[in-house]
Amino acid sequence: MNAAALVAPVRALWAEDALLPGGWAREVLLRWDAAGHIAQVEAGVPAPAGVARAAGPLLPGMPNLHSHAFQRALAGLTELRGPAPDSFWGWRQRMYAFANRITPESLEAIAVWLYLEMLEAGYTSVCEFHYLHHAEGGKPYADDATLSLALLRAARRVGIGMTLLPVLYQRSGFGAPPAPEQARFILGTDSLLALLQRLAPVAHAQGAALGLAPHSLRAVPPESLQAGVAGLHALLPQAPVHIHMAEQTREVQECLAWSGLTPVQWLLDHAPVDARWCLVHATHMTAEEHAGAARSGAVAGLCPSTEANLGDGIFDLPQWLAHGGRWGLGSDSHICVNAAEELMLLEYGQRLQRRERNVLGSGAQPQVATAMMLQAVAGGAQAAGRPIAGLSAGQQADFVVLDAAHTALCGLPADSALAGHVFASHRSSAVHAVWVAGQQRVLPHGHALRASARAAFIRARRQLLQA
Ligand code: NGQ
Ligand code: ZN
Question: Catalytic pick from 66, 133, 215, 281?
Fold first, then answer.
């Protein structure tokens, strides 16, 4: 054996329990290649000498399918009531005021910290729904890619996977011109396609994917939606398309008044919706819309903590699943950055509404946390347009090791340990270690950049609040 072979990294991990796409398996050996892709997953093998043993159950990394990174620095600043009842629309005004102060430097500092928090909480990739294109006041930067590049750089610095979705935004409401506070978001369809072309080599070099996000039917006129999606798929045939849908009942009413159709129905009738699409917050749908949208193959993007925080309503996930619908998780406004907590909230919303228990379990997978995690990973990977669909050969080696010694998990069989992690471990995370593309990014004491990233985030937020 030569010296190089002796120091070659061991690209393997053995776990007593691992959550594979088909369910829990015992004594699992995971091997990956130099590019960070899983080469082999073998169950029922004794721990080989020289291979590290996981400190607890091995889980697939969770894709985060919906993020507006800058909003992390707004968390905590909008939880106060005025004289009138507050709503999503009041929050949005505060959010706009905050968005209009963001600089390239503050955006990068916020995103670095946010993505680090995501990694520490079990998310291994993020779809960034990015609509801040211009400088303060709406003045274009010399390069339209300035803030997009800041986000890609942030992802690369902390080692999280990314799908960057530059946003098409052209209207303040159905048929209405943009408002002054939206000036930073406005980009012509051709400029957006040029931006994607400009970003393609940078994204490719770091293993990131690109897609397009028509912001919403409110914000994008039909001809731009059509041209944007066609242009995207001419450039990148498999690229994902994400859009905000039917989050608030008011927008459903406005869409009806504008077109005679509810938003999801309008989209299904006017756009080539298929498995490349992700419908974010398709909260308010009729029975026909559930059936039609699920049949299209599109992923439903669910953001339980943000949807609760903004008073949106509760997505009817059992109805969606009954039609074979796929779904994934987003942390959206980042009022909560914790994959386990989102799963808990998702199930609890269903329980509270139906006055039942264990709503998202099934005959095939009675363990609710296990069922939710497998579905969210599969749907999240589809929405991301990246090979991150869990622990199987060919997928990226993105995984999370739980701490078997955490009090909420200790002594439990693996499927119950995952339930302990999802329902009972909060504010003292049971995440022990996190790997992305075969590289360990989170150690038992956190991410290597934790102290500096935290300090930079706090500094950036302080400056934004003084601005
Ligand atoms: C956003 N967020 O783009 O950040 C939106 C609010 C809007 C959520 N929908 C703005 N949660 O929808 O017009
Ligand atoms: Zn959103």
Answer: 281
User: Is the shortest distance between the CB of 247 and ligand 1 below 6 Å?
Assistant: yes
Which alpha helices (DSSP H) does 121-188 contain, by range?
146-158
Q: Is 94 in the pocket of ligand 1 (CB under 6 A)?
A: no
The per-residue pLDDT for range 186-229, each reduced to its tens digit, is 999 999 999 999 999 999 999 999 999 999 999 999 999 999 99
For residues 99 and 133, the answer to whether their CB atoms sit within 8 Å is no
Domain ranges of the chain: 3-60+390-451, 63-384
pLDDT of 378-422, one tens digit each?
999 999 999 999 999 999 999 999 999 999 999 999 999 999 999
Q: What class is the 3-60+390-451 domain?
A: mainly beta
Residue 2 burial by Cβ neighbours in a 10 Å radius (0-12, 13-18, 19+): exposed
Question: Which ranges constitute the DSSP H helices of 49-142?
Answer: 88-99, 104-120
Judge whether 281 counts as a catalytic residue.
yes
What amino acid is encoded at 223 in this protein? E
Beta strands in 192-325 (DSSP E): 209-210, 213-214, 241-244, 277-280, 299-302
| Ligand 2 centroid, distance to 303 Cα (angstroms) | 9
CA torsion, ordered 242, 246, 250, 256, to nearest 10 deg: 100
pTM, entire model? 0.97
Ligand 1 pocket check for 182: Cβ under 6 Å? no
Question: Which CATH architecture is the domain 63-384 placed in?
Answer: Alpha-Beta Barrel (3.20)
